[in-house]
Amino acid sequence: MIRTVSRVALAAASVIAIASPALAHMTFETAQSAPGEEFRGVLVLPHGCDGAPTDTVRVTLPQGFVDVSAEAKDGWTLETPGTDGQVGQIVWSGGAVPDDGHETFAFTGTFAGDLPETDIVFAVEQMCGDVALGWEPAVSLGDAPADHGHHGGDTITVGDLELTGAFARATLPNAPVAGGYVTVTNTGEDADRLVSAQSSFSPDVQIHEMAVVNDVMQMRQLPEGLEIPAGETVTLAPGGLHMMFMNISAPFVEGETVPVTLVFEKAGEVEIALAVQAFGASGMDHSAHEGH
Ligand SMILES: [Cu+2]
């Protein structure tokens, strides 16, 4: 039996759900650089492997990441195998990070000047005995989005849909995920459906609901998307329905905007800009638009 609970009850619980191991990703502390620039990659272990301590961390370096040096750690063996004098992998082994430890592993290198201004993925294996977890933390070599698109406070119309109050909340420096919110009103005679969303800030933007399953608060992906019934308004808000930006490539910074393209079954695609509010904001404070 699954029931949707009230937004008030969910507000406090959602913080716990976001911090749960199932949703924690391995990311870089800083994930922004540029072609030709030196980069210090600091990987933060999100957790062990299902309770077991982490004993090996192996990073496979992408093409074009050169002049690499890895930082040794007390109690760990450091190896940097490679070919032709180029480091191909960095392997820390023989240590033990408990499941609840948040140890960091760091290295420095330079992105080649001829790399494209896109996201560069580092493949990371986290091993705990026989169990291995795979991660793909990325570094963005592009600028922050130059075109901020529509103002977050505007009403945007696409087909029979009106979108208002698009916002996100600022993320803490190491947060792997972020939520996005918008209100959608269907003025038409037919139901529509938000089927997917895309953003340059995340390789995987999911549509989530909050629900209580066996008395445990959970957020769940809606694989079929979200129905927008004819003549009704559906509100995505903290503690309830939300867009979930997985493995974000850069923090959400208060005062900036995050672009996201929403794909509706009938109305089609529309790009909106989420106005990033302070960490913990409810989205109900419209003071940011005074004098607009
Ligand atoms: Cu979520």
**Total individual domains:** 2
Helix/strand order, N-terminal first: EHEEEEEEEEEEEEEEEEEEEEEEEE
Bound molecules: copper (II) ion
Given the C-alpha coordinates, what overall shape results? elongated
Q: Identify the CATH homologous superfamily of the largest domain.
A: PCu(A)C copper chaperone
The helix-and-strand class reads mainly beta
- What is the CATH top level name of the largest domain? Mainly Beta
The whole-angstrom Rg is 21 Å
Give the termini distance in whole angstroms: 46 Å
Helix content: under 10%
* Spatial arrangement of strands, main beta sheet: 16-17-23-19-18-24-25
Number of strands: 25
Describe the structure.
With 292 residues, the protein is mainly β. It folds into two domains: 2-21 and 144-289, PCu(A)C copper chaperone (Immunoglobulin-like), CATH 2.60.40; 33-140, Uncharacterised protein YcnI-like PF07987, DUF1775 (Immunoglobulin-like). The chain is 4% helix and 48% strand. The chain is built from one helix and 25 strands. The chain has one helix spanning 7-18; strands at residues 2-3, 27-28, 38-44, 54-60, 65-70, 77-79, 82-83, 86-87, 89-97, 104-111, 119-121, 123-128, 131-135, 138-140, 156-158, 161-169, 178-186, 192-199, 202-213, 216-221, 226-228, 233-235, 242-246, 257-264, 268-277. A seven-stranded mixed β-barrel has the order 16-17-23-19-18-24-25. Strand 16 and strand 17 form a beta hairpin. The radius of gyration is 21 Å and the shape is elongated. The model is unreliable at 1-24, 144-153 and 284-292 (pLDDT under 50). Copper (II) ion is lined by residues 208, 219, 242, 244.
